[in-house]
Amino acid sequence: MLPQVIIIGRPNVGKSTLFNRLVGKKLALVDDQPGVTRDRRFGDAELIGLKFQIVDTAGWEDDEAETLPGRMRKQTEAALATADVALFVVDARAGLTPLDEEIGNWLRASPVPVILLANKAEGRAGEGGLLEAYSLGLGDPIGVSAEHGEGMADLFEALLPHLDPLQPPEDEFPEEEDEEARLLAPLKLAIVGRPNAGKSTLINKLLGEDRLLTGPEAGITRDSITIHWNWTDPKTQDTREVHLIDTAGMRKRANVVEKLERMAVADARHAIDFAEVVVLLLDATRGLEHQDLTIASKVLEEGRALMIAINKWDVAEDASGLFNGIRAALDDGLAQVRGLPLLAVSARTGKGLDEMIAAAFSIREAWSKRVPTSALNRWFDDALGANPPPAPGGKRIKLRYITQAKTRPPGFVVFGTRLDLLPESYKRYLINGMRRELGFESVPIRLNLRSAKNPFKKD
């Protein structure tokens, strides 16, 4: 386990910019508007050889506990309880505020070591705020610029005495896994859907804790948050590792007008690219809407394995009719991938969640499957014999053999002649046969056609 460092401060002092600087990539959304970050975000950081886990938190605000800012503050308090070091960030250009002093008083009462950072200290404009930070009584402040990378060496020196004794052995950082180990690797599972479908509530139920911020307000989640979790199969008692990815709600493009929501939706789409399996969460009280099909099509275009879960099943009306109606609408609206896994779940009661995780592991196995070339071509010959390709205009289309070019998603190449004349309907016939008879179930399949070049044909 890596030692954990938490970033704390009031809104808009540059916490997420510092987080991105330490992880070496733009993982957290950053904007001039305060209060962008709402949930805790974890990242693996390395500073001059010092390895640690960095935690970005929501801006600390002095509001009532039941309000959204109050619930965000509760998330920060929970994060501090597990941290090894706290980085308290103030704005050197704006100077200290009463809220900074309140946070400083709270941190002084904590047993966690605190390092005080005066951010935005580049140039002469930050000198006054840097000197003012001494009054917080948290030791010498370190002047940094998270945006420009200044002061990182001083931060390293401050972190070293706290984190050096906690560094794990070098062999705990293995080389990248090979192809055969992928099925034993953690399942990367993204939860997507429209706003207020219950994505964060579902993940909290899986974890057994209020890890993610939830509430009646739509659009609470902004950043895509990845959480490492161990799932125990209730049937076999085997424990499997899962990386759960919570994402922002995705509305119709025409309805997304605010810059921050556009950034959040783009981050959700980026999260889909890095997932292996994607669960599209529907709201049982609203059924299947056109936007759900748009999201599903996007997931399939990216080649991810897709499954559908109908949430709020505990309050669904005419459950049987609803399920059958959604099943029919999915098969009609996503004809390219019929028979997608469809499950009824409840994030409130926990109904169907174990079945959902088990199905996700199963569909990842199909998504990662490779068929030996000999077995693949035996199936191919049988398929051609049962339904030979057409001969448009009396010209015979010759399909010679097939090979699997890739996995995740499975991709195949068919070799032959006059393949430019092969109709789409015959390609669908082959793809449906592979799903049905080769164990690819409902995962997206890529099928390419390649004709042998005629050496006597002049260009």
TrEMBL record:
**Organism domain of life:** Bacteria
What InterPro entries has UniProt attached to this entry?
G_ENGA, GTP-bd, GTPase_Der, KH_dom-like, KH_dom-like_a/b, P-loop_NTPase, Small_GTP-bd
What's the protein name? GTPase Der
According to its UniProt entry, this protein's organism is Novosphingobium resinovorum
Q: Name one GO biological process term.
A: ribosome biogenesis
Function, in words:
GTPase that plays an essential role in the late steps of ribosome biogenesis.
Which Pfam families does this one have?
A: KH_dom-like, MMR_HSR1
Query: Is the keyword Repeat in the record?
Result: yes
Q: How the protein assembles, per its UniProt entry? A: Associates with the 50S ribosomal subunit.
Q: Where is the EngA-type G domain?
A: 3-167, 187-368
> PROSITE patterns under this entry?
G_ENGA (PS51712)
Keywords, sorted A to Z: GTP-binding, Nucleotide-binding, Repeat, Ribosome biogenesis
Residues that, per the record, bind GTP 2: 193-200, 246-250, 311-314
